[in-house]
Design goal:
Chain lengths: 155, 146
């Protein structure tokens, strides 16, 4: 394949990024529609039903050995990795319920979703404090803009 | 005052998801993204079991809301999976994550077009600033020069 024809093709990573936008962008819409007839508890149950096929699919793939090039982590590292992944699921699930409840309480999908999408502001602050990561100038500006955005969205 | 109630829940979601940014990194530093996703899903199942016990949810629901709730889980999970694929397909993390941060823009467009939501000019400005902030926050600083 020539270099020119390669440049004309959509890069694979761009394709997956755009698909992600479609999935997560549509999730906000269907959540708002669902919030008109179901509470956050029930939504969490049905949300889990929706994610179950992926659990089966990924579980099947992992049980077949995952990536051939992937080296098996040591057992203590694996245990810690599983613990943090499980905690991610619990925090993510409770976060999902709060996101859904915001819509049940009358928040518009077009306002709630941009507010909650600011969660990296908490991540970068935690990474700064606990992981001793440093912030770049753009991240500091992003942090300041996040507070401005929350103020404007609640106006 | 009622407007503050939804904002409180939205900020709670923001804080909890912010924590997952750190816990996810601590996990994928030790195990593969697939195993991490698997245990993330098992945690969702465990949380749902707790919900069944303490909330005793009622099951008399309309078809549309059931379909939309289930679709929410599938769309969220598929989005997580495709975001991993984007990163594994050679996309730079700073570009992929910045691009993905645009997803609320699609929600805003869909909500205005299909649900006929109306935004004040302040809220419109807020949505634009929020998306810009999310993109800037996802840009990791360049490594320090030796």
């Amino acid at each position: 394949m020539s270099e020119a024809s390669q440049k004309r093709r959509l890069p694979v990573w761009l394709f997956w990024s755009l698909i992600t936008i479609v999935f997560w962008g549509t999730w906000g819409l269907v959540s708002k529609i669902a919030s008109n007839g179901v509470d956050a508890w029930m939504n969490q149950l049905l949300f889990t039903v929706g994610i179950a096929p992926l659990l089966v699919l990924v579980g099947w793939k992992v049980s077949r050995g995952g990536n051939p090039g992937e080296s098996a982590p040591r057992s203590d590292a694996r245990r810690k990795g599983v613990f943090w992944a499980f905690l991610t699921g619990i925090l993510g699930g409770v976060g999902n319920m709060a996101y859904f409840e915001a819509m049940v309480k009358g928040g518009k999908a077009s306002v709630v979703t941009p507010v909650t999408a600011l969660f990296p502001m908490v991540t970068v602050l935690l990474a700064l404090v606990f992981l001793k990561e440093r912030l770049g100038r753009t991240q500091w500006i992003g942090l300041a803009l996040a507070f401005v955005a929350i103020y404007l969205l609640n106006a | 005052m009622s407007s503050m109630v939804w904002l409180g829940y939205a900020v709670l979601a923001l804080v909890l998801w912010g924590f997952t940014g750190v816990t996810q990194k601590l996990s994928t530093n030790r195990i593969s993204s697939e195993r991490s996703f698997l245990w993330f899903c098992w945690a969702m199942v465990a949380l749902s079991a707790v919900v069944v016990v303490i909330a005793r949810p009622h099951w008399g629901l309309g078809t549309l809301v059931v379909v939309c709730s289930i679709a929410g889980g599938t769309l969220n999970g598929l989005g997580a999976w495709t975001s991993f694929r984007a990163l594994e397909s050679g996309g730079k993390a700073s570009i992929v994550i910045s691009l993905i941060s645009l997803f609320p823009l699609l929600t805003v467009v869909l909500a205005v077009a299909l649900l006929h939501e109306r935004l004040t000019w302040m809220q419109t400005a807020g949505a634009v600033v929020a998306i810009a902030a999310a993109i800037l926050l996802s840009l990791e600083p360049a490594p320090a020069q030796a």
